[in-house]
């Protein structure tokens, strides 16, 4: 049996509703990176059912995939490189994002009636027009009669609500908006709040919030986020391929990084870093087998990992929950993130490989 990712569409729908009610503003659900590993098309449909007004994707290819899945509502894409096929998004009624006059010229060259959003860099220093270029970009957009439907930016530290950079970025955004309006631009929506800011920073909610990771039930700011009743949508599970006994002194997996201090039993799980489970989780992460958390022993391999069953023998074929919602005590994606020194975003977006994806809808299960 292949390892499996079970995605509960009801959880995504629920999370979008909760977030929209909390923020009281228009909601963009972000489904980039294949819906944060949950499936782009399926996540988008569930989000629309939950009340998402917009869907957000990164690339033009993702925008095309969204439309080919049947989605027809407002949508925005924002990550392009020179020479990309802008027309593929514009002709499918997707708003596109520009960071520069050069990108704006490429949009104009399509000859299509584009809906354009301008992203400004207010301190993340990643994508977006740097401050020195705001004036020229706004002036060019106004002179060309571009239909500017949005002005937006992205926080660097919204998961750290006390970081003064948040105030600085919000002030900078207001300066950009004032400058854009002086040039005659009147964006339909202004937005800067991602999941953490949407939850923790009411002043950043503006006309629209962009919720990615929180839409999938994962905490965007561990240690700061109140309990909103969000439900993790993904469960990663497999089945034991083998159970074996080992003696005290037996070492496990490559490099012999763990040695049994006493006789025990080990379970072999047919999933590894080739399937997206971080190799650094060896000797740190846990899984759930036979009603208990079981520690990963030794290094995680490309195709498999080993867990300590503490003398139990549930038998080959027993279910393994790698991570899930945590309702029964099983590890969560956040637990794996902490064990691996990363964030839950990385855990759910990178998992794949031989995992097959299955969808359930716990709101619509029969009797």
From TrEMBL:
Signal peptide: none
Keyword DNA damage applies: no
This enzyme's EC code(s): 5.1.1.1
Cofactor(s) needed for function: pyridoxal 5'-phosphate
MF (Gene Ontology): alanine racemase activity; pyridoxal phosphate binding
Pfam families in UniProt: Ala_racemase_C, Ala_racemase_N
CDD domains in the cross-refs: PLPDE_III_AR
SUPFAM superfamilies: Alanine racemase C-terminal domain-like, PLP-binding barrel
Any one of the GO CC terms: cytosol
Catalytic residues, chain numbering: 32, 254
Domain Alanine racemase C-terminal: 233-360
Alphabetized Gene3D superfamilies for the sequence: Alanine racemase, Lyase, Ornithine Decarboxylase, Chain A, domain 1
N6-(pyridoxal phosphate)lysine sites (modified residues): 32
Pathway entry: Amino-acid biosynthesis; D-alanine biosynthesis; D-alanine from L-alanine: step 1/1
Biological processes, Gene Ontology terms: D-alanine biosynthetic process; peptidoglycan biosynthetic process
The keyword Iron-sulfur is annotated on this UniProt entry: no
Reaction it catalyzes: L-alanine = D-alanine
Entry keyword set: Isomerase, Pyridoxal phosphate
Function, in words: Catalyzes the interconversion of L-alanine and D-alanine. May also act on other amino acids.
Family: Belongs to the alanine racemase family.
HAMAP family: Ala_racemase
Identification of the protein by name: Alanine racemase
């Amino acid at each position: 049996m292949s390892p499996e990712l079970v995605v509960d569409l009801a959880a995504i729908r629920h999370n979008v509703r909760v977030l929209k009610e909390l923020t009281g503003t228009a909601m963009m659900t972000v489904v980039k990176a294949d819906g944060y590993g949950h499936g782009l098309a399926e996540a988008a449909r569930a989000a629309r059912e939950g009340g998402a007004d917009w869907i957000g994707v990164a690339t033009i290819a993702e925008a095309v995939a969204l439309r080919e899945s049947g989605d027809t509502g407002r949508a925005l894409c924002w990550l392009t490189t020179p020479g990309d096929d802008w027309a593929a998004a514009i002709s499918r009624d997707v708003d596109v994002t520009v960071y520069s006059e050069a990108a704006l010229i490429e949009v104009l060259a399509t000859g299509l009636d584009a809906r354009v959003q301008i992203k400004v860099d207010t301190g993340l220093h990643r994508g977006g027009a740097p401050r020195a270029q705001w004036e020229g970009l706004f002036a060019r957009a106004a002179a060309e009669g571009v239909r500017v439907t949005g002005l937006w930016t992205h926080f660097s530290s919204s998961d750290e609500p006390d970081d003064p950079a948040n105030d600085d970025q919000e002030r900078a955004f207001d300066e950009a908006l004032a400058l854009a309006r002086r040039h005659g631009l009147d964006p339909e929506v202004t937005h800067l709040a991602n999941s953490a800011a949407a939850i923790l920073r009411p002043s950043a909610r503006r006309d629209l919030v962009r919720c990615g990771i929180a839409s999938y039930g994962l905490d965007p700011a561990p240690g700061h986020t109140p309990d909103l009743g969000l439900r993790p949508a993904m469960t990663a599970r497999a089945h034991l391929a083998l159970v074996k006994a080992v003696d005290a002194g037996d070492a496990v997996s490559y490099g012999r990084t763990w040695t049994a201090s006493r006789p025990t039993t080990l379970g072999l799980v047919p999933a590894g870093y080739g399937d997206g489970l971080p190799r650094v989780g060896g000797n740190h992460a846990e899984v759930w087998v036979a009603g208990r958390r079981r520690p990963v022993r030794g290094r995680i391999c490309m195709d498999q990992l080993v867990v300590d069953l503490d003398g139990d023998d549930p038998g080959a074929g027993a279910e393994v929950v790698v991570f899930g919602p945590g309702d029964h005590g099983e590890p969560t994606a956040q637990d794996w993130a902490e064990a691996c020194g990363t964030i839950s975003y990385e855990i759910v977006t990178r998992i794949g490989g031989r995992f097959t994806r299955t969808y359930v809808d716990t709101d619509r299960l029969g009797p």
